[in-house]
UniProtKB/TrEMBL annotation:
GO CC terms in record: cytoplasm; exosome (RNase complex); nucleolus
Protein name, per record: Nuclear nucleic acid-binding protein C1D
Homology family: Belongs to the C1D family.
Native source organism of the sequence: Drosophila mojavensis
Gene: Dmoj\GI14174
Annotated compartments: Cytoplasm; Nucleus, Nucleolus; Nucleus
Subunit annotation: Monomer and homodimer.
């Protein structure tokens, strides 16, 4: 019975409770313990960061949302361990709301880091393009100057006549 109180899982295989050892159950418990340790470490780090005066308002909002999600997750784990029926429990609403907030924050962050259109440069390109004539050269649009150099002036007049008759 000495292996029960130790967090080390090496001794668990030696314990027999009158049931055959179940490797799948052991792996599940081991994964659960690792997940719980990770959550506790994240919580410790987040609480330390929460007390920092250097955080901006945006960072504080992100951290508060993360802490809400983390605490809801820990409470959900507690309820599951107690065998409670959580299908109708309010914690599911809290978890889904925190997930939505985290997803929305990520969406805002991505949209803020997206490339922006330089309006003045765009206006210059459009203004320059308005004064440029384009000619259809076998399905490829080329400038009139390029078309002249490849076909000659006679080809341009022929092209204009074809366009006016259509």
């Amino acid at each position: 019975m000495e292996g029960i109180n130790t967090p080390n899982f090496e001794n668990v295989n030696n314990i027999c409770y009158g049931h055959p050892n179940d490797d799948k159950l052991f792996e599940t418990l081991k994964d659960f313990s690792i997940s719980l340790d990770n959550l506790e470490n994240d919580l410790t780090y987040a609480v330390k960061a929460h007390n920092s005066p250097k955080l901006t308002i945006e960072e504080q909002i992100k951290l508060d949302t993360f802490l809400t999600y983390l605490n809801s997750t820990l409470f959900w784990m507690y309820l599951k361990l107690q065998g409670s029926d959580i299908n109708k429990h309010y914690i599911l609403h809290d978890l889904s709301r925190a997930k939505e907030l985290l997803a929305r924050e990520m969406q805002i962050t991505c949209s803020l880091s997206a490339h922006r259109l330089d309006i003045t440069a765009t206006k210059r390109f459009i203004a320059a393009g308005i004064h440029t004539r384009f000619v259809d050269m076998d399905g490829v649009m080329v400038t009139e100057a390029h078309y002249k150099s490849s076909v000659g002036d006679a080809g341009i007049k022929k092209q204009r006549n074809n366009e006016s008759t259509q």
